[in-house]
């Protein structure tokens, strides 16, 4: 079609039919130019005429501004303010984020092909550092960075024509570039085609990023950026939309059965490539790397650091669909986990729900016997306390570690510490009971209240004895030795 613009058309002269000339004249082209020449030319995006000026509506994630629809190309004024501000990485962990527009990722910018974007970058006077912006949607030196360097309390302006349709990352490009990106300075700008993207019911804005803090994952307090970890690509946090839990629980994105969903997913990096996946959903269409090639029926799509993808699918059944980086430790141990809550009628035809219940070993639970299966390997029997501690340690790092953390330090507000735990040391039978039966409701460890749920741990008596002996022998606890007999007694009480 005449209205589809490609780079190729920019460089090649295309002979058009008289009908073609008529359409392009009537729609948007300066006709006098064509009349001057005997060989008619296709207009390039650079030549698309503007009709009027609008101020861009900007949104914070997970929201996106309304679609461009069939509006004509315009001068679009984007006013973006850089703010350095404290935020929460996860419960109890603070971080100074550097932001475009106050959010991580920065404000979503929505344009159409042929717009003239007039970009005004403002650096808040309270900020400490100079910044600039490199938009991957820009054709020009530094993607705008060379024209937008601003010190605190200053602003800069430049403009660019959107020449290519697609979803593009923008980021700060001030040295050290990696550090500015690692602190949250990235976002997305969409360039829609003439007439807009096909309408869908729900659209959301999600961006992955990796963060590097002096303290390990979950270490409370205000955590400074760690340059060495960043250089070594040893991320403490890998998250969607700037923090752990930005898209879970009450913050989950939503849709209703039968609706079509479009996700604008970017990856700010600075280092890691995302294997983006939604558990229990297949992507009907993926605009590969945010460009014009469309793949269909995709399970997991790669999003490079500094790249983006448009993902479209219809939701057919209700439930909670988990968004992850399928480099899966990042999801369960570093925060790269979100939720899409779909409400509506069940469809037994598509998904049956549970038809038969049996034993399943979810992540974090030790090996179990399968009734009717060939014999499980014989349990390793501990011959000494030292054996118990070694076996217990292995079990701990398979099972308890995900919640209570490697050094038993727990996660503030969610998982109580096992390190030097007064609660644990007070009453061994109660501790055994917690591990066998799980626990919910309030408890206090070191004067801090927790009110959460520990699921029942499906373990043998010996395993419970070993893991607790390990815990008691570690991190300043009472060095109590727990035996299988003690566990058996507690088990038989109920
Ligand atoms: Cu910056």
Helicity, as a percent range? 10-25%
Oligomeric organization of the protein chains: single chain
- Briefly note the structural class of the backbone: alpha/beta
Radius of gyration: 28 Å
Total count of strands: 23
Number of helices: 12
Major sheet details: 6 strands, mixed
Strand portion: 25-35%
Mean pLDDT over all positions: 88
- The low-confidence runs, each spanning 5 or more residues with pLDDT under 50, are 1-35, 365-376
What general form does the structure show?
elongated
Give the cofactors and ligands.
copper (II) ion
What is the rounded distance between the termini? 74 Å
Question: What is the topological layout?
Answer:
Layout: H1 7-11, H2 18-27, H3 31-36, E1 53-55, E2 75-90, E3 93-100, E4 109-112, E5 116-123, E6 134-135, E7 154-161, E8 166-171, H4 177-182, E9 186-192, E10 202-211, E11 221-222, H5 227-231, E12 237-240, E13 253-256, E14 260-269, E15 274-279, E16 283-287, E17 294-298, E18 300-303, E19 307-314, E20 319-325, H6 329-333, E21 337-343, H7 385-399, H8 401-404, H9 422-426, H10 428-437, E22 439-445, E23 448-454, H11 461-473, H12 484-493
Parallel strand pairs: 1-2, 2-5, 3-11, 4-9, 10-14, 13-21
Antiparallel strand pairs: 2-3, 5-7, 6-8, 8-9, 10-12, 14-19, 15-18, 15-20, 16-17, 16-19, 20-21, 22-23
Helix pairs in contact: 7-11, 10-12, 11-12
How is this structure best described in words?
This protein is an alpha/beta fold and 494 residues long. It is built from twelve helices and 23 strands. The strands form five sheets. Strands 1, 2, 3, 5, 7 and 11 form a six-stranded mixed beta sheet that branches. It has a six-stranded mixed beta sheet with strand order 12-10-14-19-16-17. Helix 7 (385-399) crosses helix 11. The longest helix is centred in the last third of the chain and has 15 residues, at 385-399. It is elongated and about 90 Å long. Mean pLDDT is 88; it is low at 1-35 and 365-376. Bound molecules: copper (II) ion (CU).
């Amino acid at each position: 079609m005449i209205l589809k613009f490609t780079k190729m058309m920019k460089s090649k002269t295309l002979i058009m039919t008289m009908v073609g000339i008529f359409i392009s004249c009537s729609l948007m082209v300066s006709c006098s130019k064509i009349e001057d020449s005997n060989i008619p030319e296709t207009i390039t995006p650079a030549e698309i005429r503007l009709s009027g000026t609008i101020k861009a509506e900007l949104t914070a994630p997970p929201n996106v501004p309304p679609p461009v629809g069939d509006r004509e190309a315009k001068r679009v004024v984007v006013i973006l303010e850089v703010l350095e501000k404290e935020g929460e990485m996860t419960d109890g962990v603070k971080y100074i984020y550097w932001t475009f527009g106050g959010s991580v990722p920065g404000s979503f910018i929505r344009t159409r092909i042929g717009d003239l974007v007039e970009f005004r970058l403002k650096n808040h006077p309270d900020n400490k550092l100079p910044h600039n912006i490199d938009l991957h949607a820009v054709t020009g030196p530094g993607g705008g960075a060379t024209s937008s360097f601003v010190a605190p309390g200053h602003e800069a302006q430049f403009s660019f024509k959107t020449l290519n349709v697609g979803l593009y990352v923008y980021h700060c490009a001030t040295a050290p570039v990696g550090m500015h990106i690692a602190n949250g300075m990235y976002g997305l700008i969409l360039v829609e085609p003439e007439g807009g993207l096909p309408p869908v019911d729900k659209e959301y804005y999600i961006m992955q990023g990796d963060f590097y803090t002096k303290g390990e994952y979950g270490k409370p307090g205000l955590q400074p950026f760690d340059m060495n970890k960043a250089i070594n690509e040893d991320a403490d946090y890998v998250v969607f939309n700037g923090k752990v839990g930005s898209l879970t629980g009450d913050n989950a994105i939503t849709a209703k059965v039968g609706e079509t969903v479009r996700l604008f997913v970017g990856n700010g990096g600075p280092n890691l490539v995302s294997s983006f996946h939604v558990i229990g959903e297949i992507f009907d269409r993926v605009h590969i790397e945010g460009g014009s090639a469309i793949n269909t029926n995709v399970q997991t799509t790669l999003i490079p650091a500094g790249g983006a993808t448009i993902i479209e699918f219809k939701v057919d059944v209700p439930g909670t669909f988990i968004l992850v980086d399928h480099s899966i430790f990042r999801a369960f141990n570093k925060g790269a986990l979100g939720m899409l809550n779909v409400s509506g009628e069940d469809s037994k035809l598509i998904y049956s729900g549970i038809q038969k219940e049996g034993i399943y070993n979810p992540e974090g639970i030790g090996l179990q016997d399968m009734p009717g299966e060939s014999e499980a390997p014989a349990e390793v029997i501990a011959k000494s306390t030292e054996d118990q501690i070694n076996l217990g340690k292995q079990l701990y790092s398979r099972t308890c570690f995900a919640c209570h953390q490697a050094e038993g330090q727990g996660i503030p507000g969610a998982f109580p510490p096992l390190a030097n735990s007064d609660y644990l040391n007070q009453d061994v039978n109660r501790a055994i009971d917690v591990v066998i039966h799980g626990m919910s409701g309030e408890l206090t460890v070191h004067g801090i209240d927790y009110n959460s749920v520990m699921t029942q741990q499906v373990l043998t008596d010996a395993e419970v004895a070993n893991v607790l002996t390990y815990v008691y022998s570690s991190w300043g606890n009472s060095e109590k030795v727990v035996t299988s007999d003690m566990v058996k007694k507690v088990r038989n009480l109920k």
